[in-house]
TrEMBL record:
Pfam families: SurE. The keyword 4Fe-4S does not apply. Its cofactor is a divalent metal cation. SUPFAM superfamilies: SurE-like (SSF64167). It comes from the Archaea. One of its GO terms (molecular function) is metal ion binding. It is found in: Cytoplasm. It comes from Halospeciosus flavus. Its EC number is 3.1.3.5. This is 5'-nucleotidase SurE. The gene is surE. The keyword Metal-binding applies. Binds 1 divalent metal cation per subunit.
Length: 257
């Protein structure tokens, strides 16, 4: 891949996060990197979109008072240069399973790019619940940087994006260094619960995190969650539009409406 590769880098943890700094430092070895990222943490905002956002210059590029999806649109349409590739991350915490694809701000930035017809990569680092509560350092993202720079350098010319519109990359815990990358599919596993409290509130809880902490998930080989728990870099090739096959039963209902 030519050093003329233009990369737009964003995230959802905010422009001051060590994860985006780590990717910026690594990706500058394979291309020209422009950062357009949220000024503050925008985790789990999905593809929420604003009608107007403030922008401020930052040492890495531009800080946007908005969501990751805002950042992609602003970067592509107003700030430039127009990229060959969009990278989102590196997220503090994994983005694994089908159910997170619409929730995650990191993945949503990649999806936003896909709707522009641009190849994109979302990348996240798995941490246990205890590790997540601590501050991370740039060095914690070493495997994520290695995997992302490798894909940025080689995926465009390899034909990967002729079938996939974006890649969802997840890397193992920082203390589980790996040199194995596997192609996966998002897991079907889902275990959300809600508890009504006595103070007029309801607590929403994702129990998959406890299962991940214990390494006790039912996901079979070939799934993203299984790969990461096994200490491998997971890469899921995905498409952005939500589509289904032609549905005869619904055709019949529509005809009799």
């Amino acid at each position: 891949m030519s050093s003329d590769l233009e990369i737009l880098l964003t995230n959802d943890d905010g422009i001051e996060s060590p994860g985006i700094r780590a990717l910026y430092d690594g990706l500058t070895d394979v291309g020209n990197v422009t950062v357009v990222a949220p000024a503050e943490n925008q985790s789990a905002t999905g593809r929420a979109m604003s009608s107007e956002v403030a922008v401020h210059e930052h040492e890495l590029g531009y800080a946007i008072a908005g969501t990751p999806a805002d950042c992609v649109v602003a970067g592509l349409e107003a700030l430039g240069p127009y990229p060959d590739l969009v990278v989102a991350g590196c997220n503090k915490g994994a983005n694994l399973g089908q159910y997170v694809l619409g929730r995650s701000g990191t993945i949503s930035a990649a999806v936003e790019a896909a709707f522009f017809g641009l190849p994109s990569i979302a990348v996240s680092l798995f941490l246990t619940s205890e590790e997540f509560e601590r501050e991370t350092a740039v060095d914690d993202y070493e495997t994520a940087v290695d995997a992302t720079t490798y894909l940025a350098e080689h995926a465009l010319d390899s034909g990967v994006f002729e079938q996939a519109e974006y890649l969802n990359v997840n890397t193992p815990r920082p203390d589980r260094s790996t040199d194995e990358m596997v192609v996966t599919r998002p897991s079907h596993g889902y275990d959300m619960t809600a508890t009504r409290n006595g103070d007029g509130r309801i607590t929403l809880h994702d129990r998959m995190w406890e299962k991940m902490d214990a390494g006790e998930v039912d996901d079979p080989p070939g799934t993203d969650r299984r790969a990461v728990l096994d200490g491998k870099v997971s890469v899921s090739p995905l498409t952005a539009p939500h589509t289904t096959e032609h549905h005869e039963a619904l055709d019949a209902l529509a005809e009799t409406y």
